[in-house]
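[Solved] Which block belongs to which protein?

Original post:
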Amino acid sequence: MTLGITSLDDLGTWARGNGLEIVLLIVGSILLARFVGWFGAKVTERIDAQDRSSDALVRSEAAKHRHSLTQVITWTAIVLVYTVTGVLVLERLGVPLASLIAPATVAGVALGFGAQRVVQDILAGFFIITERQYGFGDLIRISNLGSTTGVTGTVEDVTLRITRMRTVDGEVVIIPNGQINQVTNLSRDWARAVIDVPLPATADIHRVNAVLQAVGEDVYADPSLRPLMLDAPIVMGVESIDVERFSVRVVARTLPGKQFEVGRELRARIATALREEGITLPAELETVATRPT
């Protein structure tokens, strides 16, 4: 690399020429990157404001996708600005870019072996966003393949490399996209609250069904719960039976992400109604909240 500087006069000439251009390029790239970040933040704030001003209780799929896409475009634009600036600065420093191709190729191969995980994360993030698997504000559960347990939380950020989510305990979980094996989206389209009511084997099934149906109608008529539900809860009938007890299943279709709230209220009202009818419940009353696959 040579700058062609042999004297103080040459240094002054270079400083007024290429040196000044380098300073302007660096300052300009910083200002442009900040403007891109500011503009991206304004766009996401506008998307969030429009979503909050609507009557919808949950974010629309389009809004969640636009939010995630805006964040990715902002991040990509900032990286592109700094990359182009770096190339232009090297040119003004007199670095022959053609001679860097071979070393860059070798370095790229070396980095490729060491950065396989990063490339995997970025590719996985690309497909997560383009396929709209989940987005900002979605309630998701990330677990191993075939497992029903895992980490459940609300998505706060999705980039090409990581997914950041917050659990119900307030913990922030950051997961590289390439390490996500299975995602269950609990806030897509609609969900179900499934309540399995355990009852003693001596209980009158017809009387129990009538009580459960009445509870479902009362819940659906409640002004505070009606907006969360798509239709009235349905008594599916006997789900399981053994020597000492049997189980009756009640199912309620809800808005995405609201199945837990509806399930808790249904469970409390079912327990109260059965006690008032003199039907003794076992020690536990199991509630399972699921969504269709």
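(Second protein starts here: sequence line, then its structure tokens.)
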Amino acid sequence: MSNQTATASVGEQMRNDPAIASAIETIVERVRAHASQITDIRPANPDLKVSYDDLLERSAAVKGRGLLYPTLSSGAGNGALVEMADGSVKWDMITGIGVHFMGHAHPEVIRAQASAAIEDTTKHGNLQSSFAAYEFGEKLVRLAQRNSRLKHAFMTTSGAMANESALKVCYQKHFPASRVLAFKHCFMGRSVTMAQIGDSHAGREGIPLSTQVDYMPFWNEVAVEKVGGATKFIDHCVWRLQQYIDRYPKMHACFIFELVQGEGGFNLGNRDFFRALMECCRANNIAVWDDEIQSFGRTERMFAYEMYDLGEFVDVFCVGKMTQACATMWTEEYNPKAGLLSGTFTGAGVDFAVGSALLDHLASSDYYGPDGRFAAHHRAFRDQVRGLMDRHPDWFGEALFTKELVGGVGGMMRFTPFGGDKAKIAKLCKVAYDEGVILFYCGHGPYHVRMLPPLPVMKMEDWPRVFAVLERAMAKVASED
């Protein structure tokens, strides 16, 4: 059959080829067969030590410094367990700061990856792309529109670039406004501009400051009690916001709302608090930008703005990490002029294939709501921490500026041992890694142990196993203190 008379493109014929489909299913089955050998943590294989140490040295030479954790994966894992190249297996409770949300060797992910691999090119871009990129954006918009006015999406390669695009959209809409409002302890990414907005000295040390940022207090239960209740705290924050607005009339392009702070400490907000600030922004023609790059999909609703019932206020939105492909979204009123947003790459075909599969998976699941699986996992996590606190109260001294020593929501989990001391928390994370569970920390004093576990593949019976390892690690840190 000639190309002129074919009823389907060659690409469509290829995607519907039974032999290719069978080969992909064979790949999925064989990967799962290998992965099924991984059933529990285990120490490193001594026979692999020399080759593994060599890989670590080579990695450090390329990077210019040693790796934070001496970790290089083998490329294999099973659910919440991941294998290192030295043959050791560990509980993956941080998933690459939330990137591997579906865990390891998930059949839907392997299938999507293998299907994307047959395309003729690796990367998609704004000049040439298949529909895969726009299908991902289409699904994202459709889900967002259930409870917001978001209408369009621009796909990009990283969370920082999604944030850069959002800032450009806000600047253009509110030109010549040049200032940005953000919460204390926010994190925005590693680009020059985002490092300046992020509230971390280490993230911007040595960078010339050219972006004008005004910081607002984030919701804090300790502060609320000190000032005499929620109403007084909210009124004070609105007054403070108005002071910035009056000091720099019409000069704020946006207020960045991280509704659940990530790097800042897995801090939860308050609907009345957010709403009051958003209403002030609306009254003063300031864009409300919702940054959910770390929180998307992990809270008790798919979107954090749904959890707080604030979708009506959101003008600009960013998503990334677990979605593989990252995106900036906006309402019709914020649709930018041609030429503002572009780039050679929007992402790889595998990014969009896996991202689309993940959105379908989340949308058709029983994960969300107060009785959903994520809420149940979060309760199980809290129960395990409280068990540690009951057995070892000396490990949990009072931490400054936090009311609860266990917190977060859904798949964003944190707890605060050792008074939130940074050195002890960092040491615990490294000892825990050696024992068999991968963790990280967050916060800026107090510091917290942070978990972003792969909840779609976690089993309730996994939690005691994870915390048995963690308890051994905490005991070692406590005994060395």
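Accepted answer:
You had them paired correctly. Confirming on the second one: The chain has a mean pLDDT of 95.
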